[in-house]
Specification:
Layout (H helix, E strand, L loop, with lengths): L2 H5 L6 H13 L2 H5 L1 H35 L9 H6 L4 H38 L6 H19 L1 H6 L1 H21 L18 H8 L19 H29 L5 H4 L5 H6 L4 H32 L17 H15 L5 H28 L12 H18 L1 H20 L9 H18 L12 E4 L7 H11 L5 E8 L9 H14 L5 E7 L2 H11 L9 E4 L5 H15 L4 E6 L11 E5 L6 H13 L8 E8 L5 H14 L5 E6 L6 H9 L4 E5 L8 H12 L5 E5 L10
Parallel strand pairs: 1-2, 1-4, 2-3, 4-5, 6-7, 6-9, 7-8, 9-10
Antiparallel strand pairs: 5-10
Helix pairs in contact: 2-9, 2-11, 2-14, 4-10, 4-11, 4-16, 4-17, 6-7, 6-14, 6-15, 6-16, 6-18, 7-14, 7-15, 9-11, 9-14, 14-15, 16-17, 16-18, 16-19, 17-18, 20-24, 22-23, 23-27
Length: 736
């Protein structure tokens, strides 16, 4: 259907859209069937205490939901929309899918409750009826409320007005009957006549009474002004429910119409005995409250399914709207699932599980509001400000009640949500938006960087933060892979492309280039940062990036280059190395052959020259390399060359003591070059079969760069993969 058609769909205000469904769901079965039982077991003071504790948890959750609702423009989906746009789509889906099933099963549960109430009257009028009558009546209720809601949400909501009147009349009838019967002194101590398990057992039985306050939030997509209606309607419904749940115990505790022993018996008898005109007005109110709860479930459940569908977590067909803007297909699917659940028969166990899933929703709503407040994103500017510790208190309260109700069901609910989260996390989700997670990690990173600034980086803490310079990632993927191996997923690897040009040119699309770089890395399952820097000159650009890359102690301390196409480019790299060494940046130049796609590696050679302090860094890099799964079985051999046997033993002893002191497992081999072969020949003869060979870099005198690069080319010939290293780090010459 066209968007213009959707815009003509009726929108609702605070009273009809939020307050009415919320307060009628709160004033449901527990009000009529259990509140007298609570008073008869606990006495008046502890009953009021239970009401206040339970209402405080829901009120805090209502405040948290209101804070989120006043900060963003709420769309269809209610609680699911809030969470998915606060904690991310995966968290939203992990809560939204169980939430949809909860609302669907709630429809079945309330229909069963209404059917049993109708059956009770039928038994009085016409005598015993067959057992299958209850599920048949429940099925009929489901079909009727589904048909009405699927046709028009406005009609379904307007039907709740007479229902609210019936509930109000039943309460007034109770008050009139109680006053006309005279007064007595209330019980002030707990007797536990029929609730021998104690206070918290009674609390667990009562708590589901206050869990219906989110019914109005579920109508978010159908509200004229969600950010205004949700806070007002929700909080008013919670307060109204709390007042009534305090008022009714006071009435039962002070009236002579019913004894405390009779109150301690579960059921509606305390109401019908006390109320004016007896059961006539009471049953109308009770049935109306149950029917209203059923309407609340069939109105909000399909809208959660619609939102899931719009976000790609359910088939697209469920997001289709009728000409009146109603999610008709989602509504009928919900009705069909609720009808199928009728076959389960009794839903008492399911009802408890549903309550726990709703409570897990409250935990996450409070947690979302707390995180939003703690992270302090600039965009988080709610008109209702809730301190983070208040929201956390709400989460803890909901968790406590979950464990109180049923620890096993609590664990099962959490397990289901975790499984859904993991499944959604692994799935490629195309729809993304800004959520609090980015702000959370930003705040945590800032805090960590500030703390890190207070600690000096010495050899014990040093790790390579590498800036990898590359022109085309696909052609130099082995180098990026090697950098991440050195990094061990603990340091920082930044892949940088120096684009030679000027920023004033309009045809330079930096965002697209960086996006293509990220896609290339993702295709090879490599995690690294990507950046494109524009500079008129490659040398100056590389030097500038080496200086400024990173933040605080997470600045780049090592730069890495691939093997250039010609000698001239290699000369330029040596010039860059000379400059960045003065600012403490180490240099790695690599000449690699198909590293990433090979199997397990067996040999790592390090050639120790002794003239520079490069051996420290080469030894550390080799050790870090071997910590990777594909390199774990590789043997590190520390090699060096002497002219005669006189120096062999002394050098062997020195190198053995060195590797022993730095606690790196390696072998030592000192080669006597008695044949007076060139160094390149000796290295080639001993390391041609090594998977990777490390050699040191020196800084040649100015003007001697080309002569030195000729030597590097000669040294690298005949070897599989070569890593040239220049150590300019803090621990140069003092590796721990």
């Amino acid at each position: 259907m066209s968007s213009s058609d959707v815009e003509t769909a009726p929108k609702f205000g605070t009273f009809l859209g939020v307050f009415t469904p919320s307060v009628l769901t709160i004033l449901g079965l527990v009000l009529y069937l259990r509140i007298g039982w609570v008073v008869g077991n606990l006495g008046l003071p502890q009953t009021i205490l239970i009401v206040l504790i339970a209402s405080s948890i829901t009120f805090i959750t209502g405040l948290s939901a209101s804070a989120i609702a006043t900060n963003i423009r709420i769309g269809v989906g209610g609680e699911y929309y809030m969470i998915s746009h606060s904690l991310g789509l995966e968290f939203g889906g992990a809560i939204g899918i169980p939430l949809y099933l909860c609302r669907t099963l709630s429809l079945t549960f309330y229909s069963f409750g209404l059917a049993e109430g109708v059956l009770l009257i039928m038994t009085r009028w016409i005598g015993p009826v067959p057992e299958y009558t209850v599920p048949l009546v429940a099925a009929a209720v489901i079909i009727v409320v589904t048909a009405l809601s699927g046709k028009s949400a406005s009609m379904a909501l307007k039907l709740q007005i007479p229902i609210m009147i019936a509930v109000a009349v039943s309460i007034v009838a109770l008050i009139i009957g109680a006053v006309s019967s005279g007064f007595r002194t209330p019980e002030m101590v707990s007797t536990y006549r029929t609730a021998h398990q104690g206070f918290w057992y009674v609390f667990a039985i009562f708590f589901p009474a206050v869990t219906g306050f989110t019914a109005g939030i579920g109508m978010s997509g159908d509200l004229k002004d969600p950010s205004k209606s949700i806070p007002r309607g929700t909080l008013l419904a919670v307060l109204t429910g709390a007042v009534i749940y305090v008022l009714i115990p006071v009435i039962f505790s002070t009236t002579n119409s019913v004894s405390f022993e009779e109150l301690a018996t579960p059921g509606v008898k305390a109401w019908t005995t006390t109320a004016f005109l007896g059961s006539v007005l009471i049953f109308a109110g009770m049935w109306g409250a149950i029917l209203s709860s059923a309407f609340g479930s069939i109105l909000t459940g399909p809208r959660v399914l619609q939102a899931l569908s719009e976000d790609g977590l359910a088939p697209k067909i469920f997001s289709r709207l009728s000409s009146r803007g109603q999610p008709t297909i989602a509504t009928w699917i919900t009705g069909i699932i609720a009808l199928a659940a009728v076959l389960l028969g009794s839903l008492n166990a399911v009802a408890q599980f549903v309550t726990i899933l709703f409570l897990s929703l409250y935990v996450v709503i409070n947690f979302s509001a707390a995180i939003e407040k703690l992270v302090r994103d600039p965009s988080y500017r709610p008109t209702i400000n809730v301190p983070w510790y208040v929201s956390i208190l709400g989460s803890l309260g909901a968790i406590f009640v979950m464990l109180l109700l049923n620890p096993l069901a609590c664990l099962a609910a959490i397990l289901i949500e975790v499984i859904i989260y993991i499944m959604l996390r692994r799935k490629s989700l195309g729809k993304r938006w800004g959520d609090v997670r980015a702000g959370f990690w930003f705040a945590l990173t800032r805090h960590a960087l500030i703390k890190l600034e207070g600690h000096s980086i010495d050899p014990r803490n040093w790790r390579p933060n590498i800036t990898v310079f590359t022109e085309e990632i696909e052609k130099e993927i082995d180098m990026v892979y090697l950098a991440t191996c050195f990094n061990q997923k603990m340091g920082v690897v930044s892949v940088c492309r120096i684009y030679e040009g000027r920023l004033s040119r309009e045809d330079i699309d930096i965002e697209e280039m960086e996006s293509n770089m990220r896609k290339a890395l993702s295709a090879h399952n490599i995690s690294a940062f990507c950046e494109v820097n524009v500079s008129p000159d490659f040398i100056q650009g590389a030097i500038d990036v080496a200086q400024i890359n990173g933040v605080g102690h997470l600045r780049s301390n090592t730069v890495m280059f691939g093997w250039p196409n010609d000698d001239i480019e290699l000369d330029l790299l040596i010039m860059i190395m000379r400059t960045i060494s003065t600012i403490g940046r180490s240099t790695i130049i690599t000449k690699l052959t198909d590293l990433k796609n090979r199997g397990h590696f067996r040999q790592i050679d390090i050639w120790w020259g002794g003239m520079e302090n490069n051996g420290d860094l080469m030894l550390l890099l080799a050790h870090l390399l071997r910590m990777n799964p594909m390199w774990r079985e590789a043997r590190i051999t520390l090699r060096s060359i002497v002219k005669d046997d006189a120096g062999k033993n002394k050098l062997e002893q020195y190198l053995s003591e060195t590797i022993r002191s730095v606690r790196i497992k390696a072998e030592v081999e000192v080669i006597v070059n008695s044949a007076r072969a060139t160094i390149a020949e000796v290295i080639r003869n001993n390391s041609s079969k090594a998977d990777i060979t490390f050699m040191g870099l020196m800084i040649p005198d100015s003007g001697q760069e080309h002569k030195y690069t000729k030597k590097l080319i000669e040294l690298s010939e005949g070897l599989q993969s070569v890593v040239f290293v220049r150590n300019a780090s803090e621990f140069s010459g003092k590796l721990l």
